[in-house]
Amino acid sequence: MINSILIQIASYRDPELIHTVKNLVSTAKNPQNLRICIAWQHDELENIDEIKSIPNLEILDVPYKETKGVGWARNLLQKQYKNEKYILQLDSHHRFVKDWDEKCITMIQDLQAKGSKKPILTTYLPNYDELSRDSDQNYPTKMIYAGFHSLGFLQFGYSQIGNHKQLARPIRSRFFSGHFVFTVGDWDKEVLYDVEWWDIFSEEINMAVRCFTHGYDLFFPHQLIAYHCYSRLGRWIHLYDAKDAKERQEKDALKLRQLLNMDNESLNIDFGIYGIGSERSLIDYEKYAGINFKNRDAEKHTRYHNEPLNFYQ
């Protein structure tokens, strides 16, 4: 089977989108194997004609006032899946290293050869500057537990993988990054984003648990693959546009606490296809990750107190 890759990009009023797509294609080893789908959530002033002629690029045109949040946009992209062998989920503010596609495929195939049937490469990528598009963080990174938010979701930072030059393959991850996911294509059918999930901050621990309990193994890439822009000086996010952002975030947080059994009182929410998987349990994840959701605590070995943190604010 050809090593086809479905690229899923959720873009919200982002001037970096054009740069991201052009860089994605120009740095790929086999750009002919890419199919790029963009959930283009835009205002009336945005123009992306510059990239519309790129082969195998599809645009889902969504006026930004009609979007329904991160879960809805990512779910919409998952529905575009056409049996590609791999998928890559991104935001719209990235740049990539040369031959990033070949590197990711090699890592996945190596992990499968070592016994992981459904590996996921995911991490908070190193930062690049949105003005210069340069980075001084030229190293692979891992996600760091940075505490529980008062609403109950986990917060993360990222740090360099210190011994990456000695590593032969990706290392185990306890967490999930919404802005970088490379995995097998079946993920788009097996772990669907909740269409009603609006909040970008509670999204990631939700998906970490759901991926793990659906039998997916989480890994940090041991090689540098790409960069992500964390600054919001030149772009917008849907949190800024929604007048009821606080209420929506609280609603998602309540739903998350129910999913993770954090509240003493159950609301009997029927999560349906957006619930915990059947291949592993929530308790299995807590043991694996060193997380106690009900107590809102993590084992000390997951904190990496002695390493510098780069926080995703």
Write up this protein:
With 313 residues, the protein is of the alpha/beta class. The protein has a single domain (5-311), classed as Spore Coat Polysaccharide Biosynthesis Protein SpsA, Chain A, CATH 3.90.550.10. It contains eight helices and 15 strands. It has helices at 17-27, 70-78, 100-113, 187-190, 203-213, 238-241, 245-259, 282-289, and strands at residues 5-12, 34-42, 57-63, 86-90, 94-96, 119-122, 141-148, 154-160, 171-172, 180-184, 217-220, 226-228, 291-292, 297-298, 310-311. An eight-stranded mixed β-sheet has the order 3-2-1-4-10-6-11-9, sandwiched between helices. Strand 1 (5-12), helix 1 and strand 2 (34-42) form a beta-alpha-beta unit. The radius of gyration is 18 Å and the shape is globular. It starts with a strand and ends with a strand.
